[in-house]
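Predict the 3D structure for this chain.
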Amino acid sequence: MLTGDSAELESSVSASVEELTRSDGRRRKALLVLIACLGAGAAPHWLGPLRGLLPALTAAVLLGAYSITTLRSGRAPISAPTEPGAALDPLPAIDVLVAARDEEAVIGRLVEAIARLDYPADRLSLWVMDDGSEDRTPQILEELSSQHRFLNVRRRQRNAGGGKSGALNALLPQLQGDWLLVLDADADLNPQLLQRIQSHLRGPAWGAVQLRKAVLNADASWLTRSQALEMAFDAEMQRGRIAQGGIGELRGNGQLLRREVLLACGGFNEDTVTDDLDLSFRLLLGGHAVAVIWNPPVQEEPVTRWPALLRQRQRWAEGGLQRFLDYWPSLLSNRLTLRQQLDLLAFFLLQYALPIATFGDLMASLGLRQLPLLWPLSVSTLTLSAVALRRAGRQSSEGPPLPAPTPLNLLVANTYLIHWFLVIPWVTARMALRPKRLVWAKTVHAGLPVSS
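Done. Predicted structure below.
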Protein backbone atom coordinates (compact mmCIF):
# COMPACT_ATOMS: atom_id res chain seq x y z
CA MET A 1 0.00 0.00 0.00
CA LEU A 2 1.28 3.47 -0.87
CA THR A 3 1.80 6.01 1.89
CA GLY A 4 0.43 9.55 1.44
CA ASP A 5 3.84 10.86 0.37
CA SER A 6 4.38 7.93 -1.99
CA ALA A 7 0.94 8.34 -3.56
CA GLU A 8 1.56 12.03 -4.04
CA LEU A 9 4.96 11.30 -5.60
CA GLU A 10 3.47 8.70 -7.96
CA SER A 11 0.69 11.11 -8.95
CA SER A 12 3.29 13.79 -9.63
CA VAL A 13 5.39 11.43 -11.72
CA SER A 14 2.33 10.27 -13.69
CA ALA A 15 1.32 13.86 -14.36
CA SER A 16 4.85 14.66 -15.52
CA VAL A 17 4.90 11.66 -17.87
CA GLU A 18 1.49 12.59 -19.26
CA GLU A 19 2.60 16.19 -19.76
CA LEU A 20 5.77 15.11 -21.56
CA THR A 21 3.80 12.67 -23.76
CA ARG A 22 1.35 15.41 -24.71
CA SER A 23 4.27 17.78 -25.34
CA ASP A 24 5.99 15.26 -27.63
CA GLY A 25 2.79 14.85 -29.64
CA ARG A 26 2.50 18.57 -30.07
CA ARG A 27 6.17 18.81 -31.06
CA ARG A 28 5.67 16.33 -33.91
CA LYS A 29 2.57 18.11 -35.13
CA ALA A 30 4.26 21.53 -34.86
CA LEU A 31 7.19 20.18 -36.89
CA LEU A 32 4.79 19.04 -39.62
CA VAL A 33 3.12 22.46 -39.66
CA LEU A 34 6.51 24.17 -39.84
CA ILE A 35 7.76 21.99 -42.72
CA ALA A 36 4.48 22.25 -44.65
CA CYS A 37 4.24 26.04 -44.37
CA LEU A 38 7.91 26.60 -45.19
CA GLY A 39 7.51 24.28 -48.17
CA ALA A 40 4.38 26.10 -49.33
CA GLY A 41 6.31 29.36 -49.28
CA ALA A 42 9.28 27.94 -51.19
CA ALA A 43 7.49 25.72 -53.73
CA PRO A 44 6.25 28.47 -56.11
CA HIS A 45 9.86 29.33 -56.96
CA TRP A 46 10.09 26.11 -58.99
CA LEU A 47 7.28 27.38 -61.24
CA GLY A 48 9.32 30.31 -62.46
CA PRO A 49 9.15 34.06 -61.71
CA LEU A 50 5.80 34.65 -63.48
CA ARG A 51 3.82 31.45 -62.93
CA GLY A 52 5.18 31.39 -59.38
CA LEU A 53 3.08 34.46 -58.61
CA LEU A 54 -0.20 32.66 -59.37
CA PRO A 55 -0.56 30.86 -56.00
CA ALA A 56 -0.01 34.11 -54.07
CA LEU A 57 -2.39 36.06 -56.35
CA THR A 58 -5.08 33.39 -55.99
CA ALA A 59 -4.71 33.29 -52.21
CA ALA A 60 -4.76 37.11 -52.08
CA VAL A 61 -8.07 37.21 -53.95
CA LEU A 62 -9.74 34.47 -51.90
CA LEU A 63 -8.50 35.55 -48.47
CA GLY A 64 -9.02 39.20 -49.37
CA ALA A 65 -12.65 38.49 -50.25
CA TYR A 66 -13.06 36.69 -46.92
CA SER A 67 -11.58 39.64 -45.01
CA ILE A 68 -13.72 42.20 -46.82
CA THR A 69 -16.98 40.33 -46.23
CA THR A 70 -16.00 39.84 -42.60
CA LEU A 71 -15.39 43.55 -42.13
CA ARG A 72 -18.69 44.44 -43.78
CA SER A 73 -20.53 42.03 -41.52
CA GLY A 74 -18.90 43.39 -38.37
CA ARG A 75 -21.29 46.33 -38.02
CA ALA A 76 -24.42 44.18 -37.92
CA PRO A 77 -25.98 44.07 -34.42
CA ILE A 78 -25.40 40.73 -32.71
CA SER A 79 -27.67 40.00 -29.80
CA ALA A 80 -29.93 37.28 -28.53
CA PRO A 81 -33.63 38.18 -28.48
CA THR A 82 -35.13 38.21 -25.02
CA GLU A 83 -37.84 35.63 -24.65
CA PRO A 84 -41.39 36.87 -23.86
CA GLY A 85 -41.76 37.45 -20.16
CA ALA A 86 -38.03 37.11 -19.53
CA ALA A 87 -37.77 40.69 -18.28
CA LEU A 88 -39.99 39.69 -15.36
CA ASP A 89 -37.80 36.77 -14.36
CA PRO A 90 -35.12 37.15 -11.68
CA LEU A 91 -31.81 38.37 -13.02
CA PRO A 92 -29.34 35.52 -13.53
CA ALA A 93 -26.94 34.94 -10.66
CA ILE A 94 -23.36 35.86 -11.60
CA ASP A 95 -20.13 34.71 -9.97
CA VAL A 96 -17.09 36.85 -10.80
CA LEU A 97 -13.87 34.80 -10.91
CA VAL A 98 -10.33 36.17 -10.56
CA ALA A 99 -7.07 34.23 -10.38
CA ALA A 100 -4.65 36.59 -8.62
CA ARG A 101 -0.93 36.22 -8.19
CA ASP A 102 1.14 39.16 -6.90
CA GLU A 103 -1.52 41.74 -7.78
CA GLU A 104 -1.13 44.24 -4.94
CA ALA A 105 -1.11 47.16 -7.40
CA VAL A 106 -4.58 46.45 -8.82
CA ILE A 107 -6.56 43.97 -6.71
CA GLY A 108 -8.09 46.63 -4.48
CA ARG A 109 -9.28 48.61 -7.49
CA LEU A 110 -10.89 45.49 -8.94
CA VAL A 111 -12.84 44.73 -5.77
CA GLU A 112 -14.14 48.30 -5.65
CA ALA A 113 -15.15 48.06 -9.32
CA ILE A 114 -17.26 44.99 -8.52
CA ALA A 115 -18.76 46.84 -5.55
CA ARG A 116 -19.92 49.62 -7.91
CA LEU A 117 -21.77 47.27 -10.26
CA ASP A 118 -25.50 47.97 -10.44
CA TYR A 119 -26.73 44.47 -9.71
CA PRO A 120 -28.76 42.88 -6.90
CA ALA A 121 -26.51 41.94 -4.00
CA ASP A 122 -28.05 38.47 -3.72
CA ARG A 123 -27.30 37.74 -7.39
CA LEU A 124 -23.62 38.74 -7.48
CA SER A 125 -20.51 37.28 -5.82
CA LEU A 126 -16.80 37.80 -6.30
CA TRP A 127 -14.45 34.83 -5.92
CA VAL A 128 -10.72 35.48 -5.81
CA MET A 129 -8.19 32.66 -5.84
CA ASP A 130 -4.94 33.96 -4.37
CA ASP A 131 -2.51 31.71 -6.22
CA GLY A 132 0.41 31.82 -3.82
CA SER A 133 1.04 35.57 -3.93
CA GLU A 134 4.30 36.70 -2.35
CA ASP A 135 3.49 40.42 -2.17
CA ARG A 136 0.76 42.23 -0.18
CA THR A 137 -2.12 40.72 -2.15
CA PRO A 138 -3.24 38.38 0.70
CA GLN A 139 -3.27 41.23 3.26
CA ILE A 140 -5.21 43.52 0.94
CA LEU A 141 -7.79 40.82 0.21
CA GLU A 142 -8.18 40.06 3.92
CA GLU A 143 -8.89 43.72 4.67
CA LEU A 144 -11.36 44.00 1.80
CA SER A 145 -13.20 40.78 2.71
CA SER A 146 -14.11 42.33 6.07
CA GLN A 147 -15.67 45.28 4.23
CA HIS A 148 -17.50 43.51 1.39
CA ARG A 149 -19.79 40.54 2.00
CA PHE A 150 -19.80 39.62 -1.68
CA LEU A 151 -16.03 38.94 -1.64
CA ASN A 152 -14.92 35.33 -1.17
CA VAL A 153 -11.17 34.70 -0.96
CA ARG A 154 -9.51 31.34 -1.33
CA ARG A 155 -5.79 30.55 -1.34
CA ARG A 156 -3.63 27.76 -2.72
CA GLN A 157 0.08 27.06 -2.82
CA ARG A 158 2.13 28.91 -5.43
CA ASN A 159 3.25 25.73 -7.19
CA ALA A 160 -0.08 23.93 -6.98
CA GLY A 161 -0.03 23.36 -10.75
CA GLY A 162 -2.25 24.14 -13.71
CA GLY A 163 -1.42 27.84 -13.87
CA LYS A 164 -4.38 30.18 -14.20
CA SER A 165 -6.60 27.30 -15.32
CA GLY A 166 -5.76 25.36 -12.18
CA ALA A 167 -6.57 28.36 -10.00
CA LEU A 168 -9.94 28.85 -11.68
CA ASN A 169 -10.78 25.13 -11.60
CA ALA A 170 -10.16 25.11 -7.85
CA LEU A 171 -13.03 27.59 -7.48
CA LEU A 172 -15.59 25.79 -9.65
CA PRO A 173 -16.97 23.30 -7.07
CA GLN A 174 -18.03 26.17 -4.82
CA LEU A 175 -19.93 28.19 -7.43
CA GLN A 176 -23.67 28.26 -7.95
CA GLY A 177 -24.15 31.20 -10.32
CA ASP A 178 -25.90 30.89 -13.68
CA TRP A 179 -23.01 32.76 -15.32
CA LEU A 180 -19.32 33.10 -14.49
CA LEU A 181 -17.56 36.37 -15.32
CA VAL A 182 -13.81 35.75 -15.59
CA LEU A 183 -11.68 38.86 -15.09
CA ASP A 184 -8.00 39.65 -14.89
CA ALA A 185 -6.91 41.48 -11.75
CA ASP A 186 -6.40 44.76 -13.66
CA ALA A 187 -9.95 44.83 -15.07
CA ASP A 188 -12.43 47.66 -14.65
CA LEU A 189 -16.09 47.70 -15.68
CA ASN A 190 -18.91 50.12 -16.41
CA PRO A 191 -21.23 50.00 -13.34
CA GLN A 192 -24.22 49.38 -15.66
CA LEU A 193 -22.53 46.61 -17.65
CA LEU A 194 -24.36 43.59 -16.25
CA GLN A 195 -27.73 45.28 -16.65
CA ARG A 196 -27.00 46.29 -20.24
CA ILE A 197 -25.99 42.84 -21.48
CA GLN A 198 -29.03 40.98 -20.14
CA SER A 199 -30.31 40.25 -23.66
CA HIS A 200 -27.21 38.08 -24.16
CA LEU A 201 -27.52 36.33 -20.80
CA ARG A 202 -31.20 35.36 -20.98
CA GLY A 203 -32.25 32.41 -23.05
CA PRO A 204 -30.13 29.60 -24.49
CA ALA A 205 -28.70 31.38 -27.56
CA TRP A 206 -25.18 31.96 -26.22
CA GLY A 207 -22.91 29.63 -24.29
CA ALA A 208 -20.38 32.40 -23.66
CA VAL A 209 -20.05 36.15 -24.13
CA GLN A 210 -16.81 38.07 -24.65
CA LEU A 211 -16.55 41.79 -23.89
CA ARG A 212 -14.38 43.95 -26.13
CA LYS A 213 -11.07 44.71 -24.42
CA ALA A 214 -10.37 48.45 -24.14
CA VAL A 215 -6.89 49.68 -23.30
CA LEU A 216 -6.34 52.10 -20.42
CA ASN A 217 -4.04 55.07 -20.92
CA ALA A 218 -3.84 54.32 -24.64
CA ASP A 219 -2.21 57.64 -25.54
CA ALA A 220 0.84 57.01 -23.33
CA SER A 221 3.01 55.91 -26.26
CA TRP A 222 2.90 54.59 -29.80
CA LEU A 223 3.06 51.05 -28.37
CA THR A 224 -0.06 51.53 -26.22
CA ARG A 225 -1.91 53.30 -29.05
CA SER A 226 -1.15 50.39 -31.35
CA GLN A 227 -2.43 47.88 -28.80
CA ALA A 228 -5.65 49.85 -28.36
CA LEU A 229 -6.31 49.83 -32.10
CA GLU A 230 -5.30 46.17 -32.32
CA MET A 231 -7.84 45.17 -29.66
CA ALA A 232 -10.56 47.15 -31.44
CA PHE A 233 -9.56 45.56 -34.77
CA ASP A 234 -9.81 42.11 -33.18
CA ALA A 235 -13.30 42.76 -31.80
CA GLU A 236 -14.45 44.18 -35.14
CA MET A 237 -13.22 41.11 -37.03
CA GLN A 238 -14.72 38.73 -34.48
CA ARG A 239 -18.15 40.32 -34.74
CA GLY A 240 -17.92 39.99 -38.51
CA ARG A 241 -16.92 36.33 -38.27
CA ILE A 242 -19.89 35.58 -36.04
CA ALA A 243 -22.34 37.53 -38.22
CA GLN A 244 -21.43 35.55 -41.34
CA GLY A 245 -21.67 32.15 -39.69
CA GLY A 246 -18.10 31.81 -38.46
CA ILE A 247 -16.99 31.54 -34.85
CA GLY A 248 -16.38 33.87 -31.94
CA GLU A 249 -13.48 33.42 -29.55
CA LEU A 250 -12.81 34.18 -25.91
CA ARG A 251 -10.09 36.60 -24.89
CA GLY A 252 -9.57 35.72 -21.23
CA ASN A 253 -10.34 39.02 -19.53
CA GLY A 254 -14.05 39.95 -19.66
CA GLN A 255 -15.44 36.57 -20.67
CA LEU A 256 -18.83 35.42 -19.38
CA LEU A 257 -19.40 31.67 -19.34
CA ARG A 258 -22.64 29.84 -18.73
CA ARG A 259 -21.72 27.66 -15.75
CA GLU A 260 -23.50 24.52 -16.92
CA VAL A 261 -21.87 24.85 -20.34
CA LEU A 262 -18.39 25.26 -18.86
CA LEU A 263 -18.87 22.20 -16.66
CA ALA A 264 -20.13 20.20 -19.65
CA CYS A 265 -16.93 21.16 -21.48
CA GLY A 266 -14.79 19.90 -18.60
CA GLY A 267 -13.83 23.20 -16.98
CA PHE A 268 -10.60 25.00 -17.81
CA ASN A 269 -7.84 23.04 -19.55
CA GLU A 270 -4.74 22.90 -17.33
CA ASP A 271 -2.61 21.52 -20.16
CA THR A 272 -2.52 24.70 -22.24
CA VAL A 273 -0.83 28.09 -21.97
CA THR A 274 -4.00 29.97 -23.05
CA ASP A 275 -7.11 28.67 -21.31
CA ASP A 276 -9.40 31.10 -23.17
CA LEU A 277 -8.35 30.05 -26.69
CA ASP A 278 -8.52 26.36 -25.80
CA LEU A 279 -11.98 26.78 -24.27
CA SER A 280 -13.15 28.62 -27.40
CA PHE A 281 -12.56 25.45 -29.45
CA ARG A 282 -14.17 23.18 -26.87
CA LEU A 283 -17.25 25.42 -26.82
CA LEU A 284 -17.32 25.35 -30.61
CA LEU A 285 -17.11 21.56 -30.76
CA GLY A 286 -19.82 21.33 -28.12
CA GLY A 287 -22.18 23.43 -30.23
CA HIS A 288 -22.12 26.46 -27.91
CA ALA A 289 -21.98 29.87 -29.62
CA VAL A 290 -19.80 32.75 -28.38
CA ALA A 291 -21.01 36.35 -28.69
CA VAL A 292 -18.75 39.41 -28.76
CA ILE A 293 -20.00 42.72 -27.32
CA TRP A 294 -18.53 46.04 -28.46
CA ASN A 295 -20.02 48.35 -25.81
CA PRO A 296 -19.62 48.41 -22.87
CA PRO A 297 -16.08 46.98 -22.85
CA VAL A 298 -13.84 45.63 -20.13
CA GLN A 299 -10.93 47.96 -19.42
CA GLU A 300 -7.41 46.63 -18.93
CA GLU A 301 -3.84 47.84 -18.78
CA PRO A 302 -1.66 47.72 -21.90
CA VAL A 303 1.83 46.28 -22.01
CA THR A 304 4.23 49.22 -21.93
CA ARG A 305 7.57 47.63 -22.93
CA TRP A 306 8.58 45.60 -25.96
CA PRO A 307 10.21 42.69 -24.08
CA ALA A 308 7.04 42.14 -22.02
CA LEU A 309 4.84 42.44 -25.10
CA LEU A 310 6.90 39.88 -27.03
CA ARG A 311 6.70 37.44 -24.10
CA GLN A 312 2.94 37.91 -24.00
CA ARG A 313 2.53 37.47 -27.77
CA GLN A 314 4.69 34.34 -27.78
CA ARG A 315 2.38 32.83 -25.19
CA TRP A 316 -0.70 33.81 -27.22
CA ALA A 317 0.84 32.40 -30.40
CA GLU A 318 1.77 29.14 -28.71
CA GLY A 319 -1.64 28.67 -27.13
CA GLY A 320 -3.38 29.53 -30.38
CA LEU A 321 -1.40 26.95 -32.33
CA GLN A 322 -1.69 24.35 -29.56
CA ARG A 323 -5.46 24.23 -29.93
CA PHE A 324 -5.25 23.59 -33.69
CA LEU A 325 -2.75 20.80 -33.01
CA ASP A 326 -4.91 19.28 -30.26
CA TYR A 327 -8.35 19.48 -31.88
CA TRP A 328 -7.75 19.34 -35.65
CA PRO A 329 -9.46 15.92 -36.23
CA SER A 330 -12.67 17.21 -34.63
CA LEU A 331 -12.43 20.51 -36.49
CA LEU A 332 -12.56 18.56 -39.77
CA SER A 333 -15.54 16.44 -38.67
CA ASN A 334 -19.25 17.03 -39.17
CA ARG A 335 -19.43 18.56 -35.70
CA LEU A 336 -18.80 21.91 -37.44
CA THR A 337 -20.69 23.47 -40.31
CA LEU A 338 -18.90 24.06 -43.61
CA ARG A 339 -19.09 27.80 -42.94
CA GLN A 340 -17.34 27.38 -39.59
CA GLN A 341 -14.65 25.19 -41.13
CA LEU A 342 -13.98 27.73 -43.89
CA ASP A 343 -13.80 30.50 -41.30
CA LEU A 344 -11.24 28.55 -39.27
CA LEU A 345 -9.25 27.69 -42.39
CA ALA A 346 -9.04 31.34 -43.44
CA PHE A 347 -8.07 32.37 -39.92
CA PHE A 348 -5.35 29.69 -39.73
CA LEU A 349 -3.92 30.63 -43.12
CA LEU A 350 -3.76 34.33 -42.29
CA GLN A 351 -2.61 34.02 -38.68
CA TYR A 352 -0.21 31.07 -38.83
CA ALA A 353 0.50 29.74 -42.33
CA LEU A 354 1.25 33.09 -44.02
CA PRO A 355 3.97 34.28 -41.58
CA ILE A 356 5.76 30.91 -41.74
CA ALA A 357 5.37 30.64 -45.52
CA THR A 358 6.85 34.12 -45.86
CA PHE A 359 10.06 32.81 -44.29
CA GLY A 360 10.04 29.87 -46.69
CA ASP A 361 9.62 32.29 -49.59
CA LEU A 362 12.52 34.41 -48.32
CA MET A 363 14.80 31.39 -47.85
CA ALA A 364 14.05 30.14 -51.37
CA SER A 365 14.61 33.64 -52.78
CA LEU A 366 18.03 33.83 -51.22
CA GLY A 367 18.98 30.28 -52.16
CA LEU A 368 17.83 30.54 -55.78
CA ARG A 369 18.68 34.22 -56.18
CA GLN A 370 15.14 35.12 -57.19
CA LEU A 371 12.70 37.79 -56.10
CA PRO A 372 10.14 36.85 -53.39
CA LEU A 373 6.84 35.53 -54.76
CA LEU A 374 4.44 35.84 -51.80
CA TRP A 375 4.45 39.64 -51.84
CA PRO A 376 0.93 39.97 -53.40
CA LEU A 377 -0.56 38.06 -50.47
CA SER A 378 1.49 39.91 -47.85
CA VAL A 379 0.68 43.32 -49.37
CA SER A 380 -3.05 42.56 -49.59
CA THR A 381 -3.09 41.31 -45.99
CA LEU A 382 -1.38 44.44 -44.65
CA THR A 383 -3.62 46.69 -46.76
CA LEU A 384 -6.76 45.05 -45.43
CA SER A 385 -5.46 45.22 -41.86
CA ALA A 386 -4.97 48.99 -42.29
CA VAL A 387 -8.57 49.29 -43.51
CA ALA A 388 -9.78 47.22 -40.56
CA LEU A 389 -7.80 49.33 -38.08
CA ARG A 390 -9.35 52.48 -39.52
CA ARG A 391 -12.90 51.10 -39.37
CA ALA A 392 -12.42 49.90 -35.80
CA GLY A 393 -10.86 53.19 -34.70
CA ARG A 394 -13.84 55.15 -36.03
CA GLN A 395 -16.40 53.23 -34.00
CA SER A 396 -18.07 54.79 -30.99
CA SER A 397 -16.20 53.53 -27.96
CA GLU A 398 -17.26 53.67 -24.33
CA GLY A 399 -14.64 53.58 -21.62
CA PRO A 400 -11.11 54.65 -22.58
CA PRO A 401 -11.25 56.56 -25.89
CA LEU A 402 -9.72 54.87 -28.89
CA PRO A 403 -6.73 56.62 -30.50
CA ALA A 404 -7.78 58.75 -33.45
CA PRO A 405 -7.34 56.74 -36.69
CA THR A 406 -5.07 59.36 -38.21
CA PRO A 407 -2.78 58.35 -41.10
CA LEU A 408 0.22 58.39 -38.75
CA ASN A 409 -1.48 56.27 -36.06
CA LEU A 410 -2.68 53.79 -38.69
CA LEU A 411 0.76 53.57 -40.27
CA VAL A 412 2.41 52.95 -36.90
CA ALA A 413 -0.25 50.43 -35.78
CA ASN A 414 -0.10 48.53 -39.07
CA THR A 415 3.69 48.41 -38.93
CA TYR A 416 3.42 47.23 -35.32
CA LEU A 417 1.24 44.30 -36.45
CA ILE A 418 4.18 42.98 -38.50
CA HIS A 419 5.61 41.64 -35.23
CA TRP A 420 3.28 38.65 -35.73
CA PHE A 421 5.29 37.75 -38.86
CA LEU A 422 8.27 37.27 -36.55
CA VAL A 423 6.54 35.81 -33.49
CA ILE A 424 4.56 33.08 -35.27
CA PRO A 425 7.52 31.42 -37.11
CA TRP A 426 9.73 31.68 -34.02
CA VAL A 427 7.13 30.14 -31.72
CA THR A 428 6.27 27.37 -34.19
CA ALA A 429 9.96 26.46 -34.58
CA ARG A 430 10.43 26.50 -30.81
CA MET A 431 7.39 24.26 -30.30
CA ALA A 432 8.73 21.84 -32.92
CA LEU A 433 12.24 21.61 -31.51
CA ARG A 434 12.03 22.13 -27.76
CA PRO A 435 10.07 20.24 -25.06
CA LYS A 436 7.54 22.37 -23.22
CA ARG A 437 6.70 22.60 -19.54
CA LEU A 438 3.68 24.68 -18.63
CA VAL A 439 4.15 27.71 -16.39
CA TRP A 440 1.91 30.66 -15.55
CA ALA A 441 3.64 33.49 -17.41
CA LYS A 442 1.44 36.32 -16.21
CA THR A 443 1.53 39.93 -17.35
CA VAL A 444 2.70 42.38 -14.68
CA HIS A 445 0.10 45.04 -13.79
CA ALA A 446 1.15 48.50 -12.68
CA GLY A 447 -2.12 49.98 -11.41
CA LEU A 448 -2.83 52.62 -14.06
CA PRO A 449 -5.72 55.04 -13.38
CA VAL A 450 -9.01 53.95 -14.98
CA SER A 451 -11.21 56.16 -17.13
CA SER A 452 -14.24 57.71 -15.56
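The domain at 91-328 is CATH 3.90.550.10 (Spore Coat Polysaccharide Biosynthesis Protein SpsA; Chain A).
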